[in-house]
Amino acid sequence: MRQFDENDVVDFVVVGTGAGGGPLLARLAETGFSVVGFDAGPYFRPLEDFASDEREQEKLYWTDERIVDGANPLTMGGKNSGKAVGGSTVHFAMVSLRFRPEWFKSRSALGYGADWPLDWKEMWHYYGKAEKALSIAGPVTYPWGPKRPRYPYRAHELNGAAELLARGAEAMGLKWTATPLATVSAPHGQSPPCVYRGFCRFGCSTNAKQSQLVTFIPRALRAGAEIRDLAMVGSIETGPDGRATGVRYHREGRWRFQKARNVVVAGYAVETPRLLLASATDKYPDGLANSSGLVGKNLMTQSNQAVFGTMSSEVRWYKGPPSLAITEHWNYDDRKDFAGGYCWMAQGPLPVEWATIQTSSRGLWGQALRDAMEKYNHQVGLKMVGEMLPNEANRVTLADERDQYGLRVARVTYSWGENDKALIQHALGQMQTSLEAVGASDIFRQEDDTNHLAGTARMGDDPTTSVVNSDCRTWDIPNLWVCDGSIFPTTGGVNPSLTITSIALRTADRIRILAARGEL
Amino acid sequence: MSRLYPDYDVLSKRWTESWNETTRQVIDRRLGVPREPRFFSSTEWRTLNAVCDRIMPQPKDRPPVPLAAYVDQKITDRLLDGYRYAQLPPQGEAWQRGLAALEQSANDAHGCSFHDLPPEWQDMLLRRMQHGELVGDAWGGMPCKLFFDHRVIPDITHAYYAHPTSWNEIGFGGPASPRGYVRMGLDRRDPWEAAEARPEQDIQRTERKKDRVG
Amino acid sequence: MSRDVNAVALSGVALLGLVALAVKPKYVSGRASPRRARLLVSGRTIDPSAAVRSARRMNRAAGVLATAVLADSAVEHYRGSFHNKAMVAPLVTAALSLAVSAHGNADKRPIRHRVRDGVYSTAALTGLVGTCFHIFNISKKPGGFSWQNLFYSAPIGAPAALILSGAVGFLAERVRDTTPGRAPTIGGISAGRAVAAATSVGLLGTVAEAGLLHFRGAYHDPFMYLPVTIPPIAAAFIGNAALGRTDRPRPMTRFLLRLTAFLGFAGAGFHVLGVARNMGGWWNWSQNLLSGPPIPAPPSFTGMALAGVAALDLMKDHPDV
Questions:
Q1: Fewer CB atoms < 10 Å away: N or C end of chain B?
Q2: Which one, of A5, A3, A4, A31, lies nearest residue A505 by Cα?
Q3: pTM above 0.80, yes or no
């Protein structure tokens, strides 16, 4: 790996190497820029480092504490935060969905949220490039939305849990499909096809999963980028002219500084605003890129409630990726009296996670818990990914407490709105109907769960109401960029990773054009 | 022995294609957890063990999973969850306060230590904690329901279900790398998965089923 | 990237062609025996043992097909946990077909054998019933006849290989059972034409099956195009032979059939490599033999191609112009 000297002024520093940082590192390096990527987490080698064990593999998550409050405090860690080179894509469930085109104009087309300053047709092109780069395994035809090119690999076989989603959906007259997943169903380069071991969210030890670790990061390294792992960026320094000069980071026991011509923040929706706010100076007392006051605000998560039941058949849902089938019906059907959409997918929680669900949803403990857990191999479940609306009161701020690096800890404040609750109840009712239709018994609901993050460095076309423009460039500081889920003005009713990666690919192209025009 | 999966032992797959070397080392460390407390005092340890026995009662016919040891290890090794409710102190302090407060409630209600109470009365106190009804100075303002939901329950139940004994109990396939699974459909089982004993079947039939394909 | 793929594929095909040309299997009579030559030279006198020779070739073809079906259905039905007791049927009938094919290959008498006939008919019938079971299996799944179910439910094409094995064996008995001095016929038409037509259809069916499953594998390796390029051409040629003049030498058809036969074994070799390429390779055989590419499946092409060569020999020996 090429290594830069700290006193070299590299063209780009990218803070965070996940769904947004990874593609940007690769494409910028391939374009010819000198690039250094930083990640607070370790650079894992999955084939050697990953065990088949839920507890052990918590090492993939951001386990450093954030303070959570609000009416509906968020569960962090593995629900939405990774800490590794490759970011959350090392532990994500690989669900790779496109936005419904109208969501890019949520306000003008659908009457809620905010508009994106992006054209869906342009995004359609970048979705295709992202799907190709990630070798997405998806169905031959996709039931919803405008036509898309064929997925590079064919969809995976449905497991029992997914088959039950399909039967339930058919009984309700809803379309369903095999989920497009970022894990290969046939050999691809060094990746063997998925062996259906079911530990996807705890790190893929076979490298079938197309996380950043096996896709964009190796490309970045081949093109001459440097990755510095176990490097916590503490602040972005700015010069007298107000422009970013580089990053101050902690690595191998001491603080260091890397000079750069451009700094891209790609730490996802908690670490990105945390870093921008922590980099406050006299010139920028409210933090960097915060003239709008929106850095950290409009934090969104997605509702992740579920309905579970028991079947007389053996389901053994631990086999295969957790979400092999999906229905996006309620993302495209507007006959609802709430705004936004949601999808639901099959589930396959491993024992510790299943214990968490049983205890938190049903209040079980003692012998009652052990008895309920014994039915493990007969369980079936449907879990939603639901849109939550932006609200400035939901936010990331800096607490006074300090972490192991001496940096102020993030406080994450969240409360569901009325629309969020209405959407959740609708979804729970639908999922329950689906389980009843396949003959599940002992049905219960998981009423409190969320996953994914977005919104805290919103993209827009007006500097007073957004933090970055459509190129992911901050309005206030021309050589400071944000390229991750923070820039989402709305979340949509699908998992965000494919959209984040597509925007990163677009941003890389935009940077190339701007550089050619001398506008960097 | 597991009731439902009487012939199943995840550990018997240790040297098969279902386990890799990293997994073997991890499970060895799991099974070799230090049995003596390094964080908790001896009084706290006694209360903690009693709490673990009620939250996850274990059958007497097999070696128990040392749940209190895992709770102690999590705190000693600083294994964090990634978030903390604003009203909860860090996990070590939360446990100390909670155990002391539980002791106080046991003394107030029954005039003796929590660990000396009969199981039904211990359960009653824990239920009251779950419903937010326990009060006392020892809580130091920490809401008892939050402590129950976010420390007592997850720290103890996760320790149980992260242990191979529990995987045998529920018939979980266990470690699976490089060998995953072939037969993924409903009512299909790979030979290396747990075979479920049906009530009308006896043990011998279960054994035959395990050798066949099932 | 795709240009590289094409270049590799074309050079691979060319290489295979050269190899196939160099390999001349003994059973194709390139040299006529002295007694036979005398008979042909003297006009349209028909060699009484030629029909038996062709029948025995077809027994061998049926045997190769039966072996492929036996191994493939054993693995796949084991994977299916024999959840329906009837799933042992193809193993039993294919094994019996293999046995009678060996018997037929050793049998030089010009009369059909009742047991062989019975086994071959049963095999074909079992294949037919199996196809119906498989279609039913697909229709029961959510989504019915979708790509998803065609990929992962019971493969429609697999029992067809058993039909073909039984059919080729059955045709072999009809060919054998020819009055000496008469040209063998099946249902009134020249046996050579009948077998050639069956070969063409059989090859196309096998192509469809391989094509479907290679599509499921996203043609991740350019060699996966081989079974959907060369055998269809061979099928076209042998189909054309079934309809055209039987007194033509047809060297190209022979070459393509021999190439297809070779491809059947090459395919099995590729599938061995494919199993090795899966996670854990051959050490993880308990998974990869079942979920990796099926090693016994490609030799179905070999069985069909052998039947095609036998058809060409029938037409050459008994031209009906």
A1: N
A2: A31
A3: yes
Q: Is C18 exposed, middle or buried (0-12, 13-18, 19+ CB in 10 A)?
A: exposed
Please write the tens of the pLDDT for every residue from A256-287: 999 999 999 999 999 999 999 999 999 999 99
Query: Could you tell me the CATH number of the domain that includes residue A253?
Result: 3.50.50.60
Supply the pLDDT for residue C135. 95
| C81 → closest Cβ in B181, B183, B192 | B183
CA dihedral C299, C304, C310, C314 (to 10 degrees): 180
Q: Is B86 an 8 Å CB contact of chain C?
A: no
Beta bridge partners of A297: A395
* Number of domains chain C is built from: 1
Check CB contact of A166 with chain B, cutoff 8 Å: no
pLDDT band of C44, cuts 50, 70, 90: very low
pLDDT of residue C25: 40
- Is A1 among the domain residues? no
Tokens of A325: 């089938």
pLDDT in tens, B182-214: 999 999 999 999 999 976 555 455 555 555 443
- Look at A205 and B177 and tell me if their CB atoms are within 8 Å: yes
Structural contact between residues B175 and B13, judged by C-beta atoms closer than 8 angstroms: yes
pLDDT at B208: 58
Q: What is the pLDDT of residues A398-446, one digit of tens each?
A: 999 999 999 999 999 999 999 999 999 999 999 999 999 999 999 999 9
In the chain, the amino acid numbered B60 is: K
Contact A49, A43 (CB under 8 A): no
Tell me how far apart the alpha carbons of residues B68 and B48 are, in angstroms, rounded to a whole number.
6
Q: Choose the mutation target among A365, A395, A403, A447 for the interface with B, i.e. most B CBs under 10 Å.
A: A365
Q: Which two structure tokens, joined as six digits, stand for A433?
A: 């109907």
Best CA proximity match to A104, nearest among A91, A115, A88? A115
Q: Residues of chain A whose C-beta is under 8 A from some C-beta in C? A: 139-141, 152-155, 157-158, 163, 166-167, 169-170, 176, 178, 185-188, 192-193, 195, 206, 208
Please tell me the predicted confidence (pLDDT) of residue C112: 86
Distance (Å, whole) CA A490 – CA A467:
14
For chain A, what is the domain count?
Answer: 1
Per the prediction, chain A carries an average pLDDT of: 97
Characterize the bridge pairing of strands A450-454 and A10-15: unpaired
Condensed to tens digits (0 to 9), the pLDDT of residues A132-158 reads: 999 999 999 999 999 999 999 999 999
What's the burial of B42, exposed, middle or buried (CB within 10 Å: 0-12/13-18/19+)? exposed
Q: Residues A334-349: what's their mean pLDDT?
A: 97
Using DSSP, state whether C185 is helix, strand or coil. Answer: strand
The subunits that touch chain B, with at least 3 C-beta pairs less than 8 Å apart, are A, C
Q: Which residue of A has its CA nearest to C277?
A: A192
Give the domain extent around A419: 10-516
- Looking at the complex, report in whole angstroms how far the Cα of residue C280 sits from the nearest Cα belonging to chain B: 6
> Which residues does A232 contact at the CB level (< 8 Å), separation at least 6?
A40, A249, A250, A251, A405, A407
Q: Is B182 on the interface with C (CB under 8 A)?
A: yes
pLDDT of residue C38: 34
Residues of A in contact with B84 (CB under 8 A): 65-68
Residue A5, domain member (yes or no): no
Distance CA A391, CA B41 (A): 46
- Tell whether A3 is covered by a domain: no
Quick: pLDDT tens for C247-280.
Answer: 888 999 999 999 999 999 999 999 999 999 999 9
- Please report the ipTM that was assigned to this predicted complex: 0.95
Q: Which of C78, C82, C286 sits opposite B17 (nearest CB)?
A: C286
Q: Which residues are CB-contacts of A459 (< 8 A; sequence separation ≥ 6)? A: A116, A117, A118, A466, A467, A468, A469, A470, A472, A487, A488, A489
